[in-house]
Amino acid sequence: MNAKIEQFFARENPPTPCLVVDLDQVAGNYAQMKTMATWADIFYAVKANPAPQLIGCLAAAGSSFDAASPAEIEACLAAGVDPTRISFGNTVKKAKDIMWAAARGIELFAVDSEGEVDKLAANAPGARVFCRIAVANDGARWPLSRKFGCGPDEAIPLLERAKHAGLRPAGLSFHVGSQQTEAQRWCEGVNWCAALFDRARRAGIELDLVNIGGGFPVHYGDEQIPGMASMLETIGRAMLEMFGDAQPRVLMEPGRAIVGSAGVIRSEVVLVADRTYGLAQRWVYLDVGRYGGLAETEGEAIRYRLEVAGRKGPMKPSVVAGPTCDSHDVLYENILYDLPADIAPGDIVTLSDTGAYTTTYASVGFNGFAPLEEYYI
Amino acid sequence: MNAKIEQFFARENPPTPCLVVDLDQVAGNYAQMKTMATWADIFYAVKANPAPQLIGCLAAAGSSFDAASPAEIEACLAAGVDPTRISFGNTVKKAKDIMWAAARGIELFAVDSEGEVDKLAANAPGARVFCRIAVANDGARWPLSRKFGCGPDEAIPLLERAKHAGLRPAGLSFHVGSQQTEAQRWCEGVNWCAALFDRARRAGIELDLVNIGGGFPVHYGDEQIPGMASMLETIGRAMLEMFGDAQPRVLMEPGRAIVGSAGVIRSEVVLVADRTYGLAQRWVYLDVGRYGGLAETEGEAIRYRLEVAGRKGPMKPSVVAGPTCDSHDVLYENILYDLPADIAPGDIVTLSDTGAYTTTYASVGFNGFAPLEEYYI
């Protein structure tokens, strides 16, 4: 585990469950990604973790921001971020929220439907818009394909509609799905963008922005993922090959890749039970579960690395579950976890790489359990 | 729609999304259930909706309470409920929470494992315990079978262990799964309890409590469910047949059946988009979704009734989705909803029978969207 976080636990012994995020590591992850992708501007995906300390840390490091809602925009503005460095990237926005954002100086908005173009034209006249196209999501742990994005063939007509309505067509975006492990998916997106830039030009629209989205994977422990450097190099090479001398401005929206590895959740074992009814399995119940911040364990999509403090003995396959009276609050039961045979109530269990998509997923109080406590150090 | 709630909407025009609950209907549902099951004490399952107004209303009506956590116990005590009328029904409890509850006068606790018996003996000596057995959940929309409950054969040894450790074995409980539509499941549970009462007696333990749990269904609109009166009559008859003259005290833990039908969520259409990429389908995006209170739409388990205000024209099959940038935030896409062909952004959409399992499921702020506003009238 991250030494700084380990020291914090030893010194403060915070009540469980809680999340601790190392801001130095966040800044380090940002700097590393920036170095690996000099050809892109990083717009941190605020939805991954909107803590003010974190936004402040990234703003100081020079990041821009991708926001999904007025509250996320507000959090960036409160950290002193210039509105021109914020993208309102949700393609589903209320008219009043568009108007609110435009009044605060937000200039860049996502669209993927006629309805959204019309709302933007009416509520943020003159705004710059990029059109999100749907691309293949194969290889992603958390695919995004059906809900967002227009077909590539619809993109230029939408941007023409935007132009005629008084908006400024800026470019295109795509998302390859979250925790995507195949760089090829981004290359396909880049390929589409290059072809559509040509089509736009023939329609009299000059585009200059390609938003390659996020989805960059974090190594949670049980999967094979390529190194970030090699993935970004592959994508950068695709940009060079497809756009040649006419390189557009490139945006990328990492969230998980910036904050995921910088966080550790500390939890406590509440109960260990050898269930013999039906399948004979050992169940280990933690004080954090699907409704307390671990929503991404749905379908066992993300398999966090678990460590049990102070136990060295032989291991035993275990179902891992959360503390609520809800049967869906089971973290892992299809593929069991090897946990110490002598694990007992009160034992401390840490879950690594949990800085992203945890705190804000937590319910306000399902079964009366409080949301996840957060510490930024 | 409930006339009182309709008038509230017309008079107050509250911002969306929000939930409005009619406390008169809550009291009415309670009274009706009490009349239908004179043979049982109602322990309202606080987890279904822990709003103080609601607990106060039910306490005044004479209800007892099933709590899952210290916060839920605290909410009941704050409403003036006597601790002897509160059951700590979660079978997974922290030692410190058991001690806390015992110190506040809670006398009745659930167990289903040796580990929990030992924790209770150490932290609430002399407490009354009931053992939760696992029973068939076929027929439930939200089955509970694997996470909780011991096998029937383990129940008496567990209660013996409890007795030897200084606890007072009170009885047995079972849960047939949430939104259970087959009364037969409860009868099977009652059957097991009667057999185990005999076994307990032979082991020198006199039991006097049968907790038949909750799971009583609400009619959401698209399903065939039997009437509550006939279900309860069937279960009551099973109690008579199985226990004869030696009727134990019966507890039941309805949650959904008490508050579900008393609530309406008011939402607004944010975007309507004809998606042609992949499947050609119309998508209707609401300002409430899976992370904003509609978690029970997971797997389309609960299909709420949707009404669109002021639209009378022809209908069109639609995918229904929530407002966040998360692809899992889709309410219904496997079985489409018929919604007005001319539905448009800004239209008001009401979701009926949403009083239970909505508010506390809402995330604290996923994607920057606030939890569900609540009104109790």
Euclidean distance between termini CA atoms of chain A: 15 Å
**% residues in beta strands of chain A:** 25-35%
CATH topology of the largest domain in chain A: TIM Barrel
Oligomer: homodimer
Output the helix-strand order of chain A: HEHEHEHEHEHEEHEEHEHEHEEEEEEE
Q: Helices and strands in order, then pairings?
A:
The structure is a homodimer of 377-residue chains.
Chain A: H1 3-12, E1 18-21, H2 23-36, E2 41-45, H3 52-61, E3 64-67, H4 70-78, E4 86-88, H5 95-103, E5 108-111, H6 114-123, E6 128-133, E7 140-142, H7 152-164, E8 168-174, E9 178-180, H8 183-202, E10 209-211, H9 228-243, E11 249-252, H10 256-259, E12 263-275, E13 281-286, E14 306-308, E15 315-321, E16 330-340, E17 348-352, E18 373-376
Parallel strand pairs in A: 1-18, 2-3, 2-11, 3-4, 4-5, 5-6, 6-8, 8-10, 10-11, 13-15
Antiparallel strand pairs in A: 1-12, 7-9, 12-13, 12-17, 14-17, 15-16
Notable traits:
homodimer; 377 residues; alpha/beta; TIM Barrel; 8-stranded mixed β-sheet
Description:
Two copies of one chain form a homodimer. Chain A has 377 residues and is α/β, with parallel strands linked by helices. The first copy, chain A, folds into two domains: 89-254, Alpha-Beta Barrel (TIM Barrel), CATH 3.20.20; 261-376, Lyase, Ornithine Decarboxylase, Chain A, domain 1 (Beta Barrel), CATH 2.40.37. In chain A, 31% of the residues lie in helices and 25% in strands. Chain A contains ten helices and 18 strands. In chain A, the strands form three sheets. In chain A, strands 1, 12, 13, 14, 15, 16, 17 and 18 form an eight-stranded mixed beta sheet that branches. In chain A, helix 4 links the parallel strand 3 and strand 4. The longest helix of chain A is centred in the middle third of the chain and has 20 residues, at 183-202. The model of chain A has no long low-confidence stretch (mean pLDDT 95). Chains A and B meet through helix 4, helix 6 and strand 12 of A and helix 4, helix 6 and strand 12 of B.
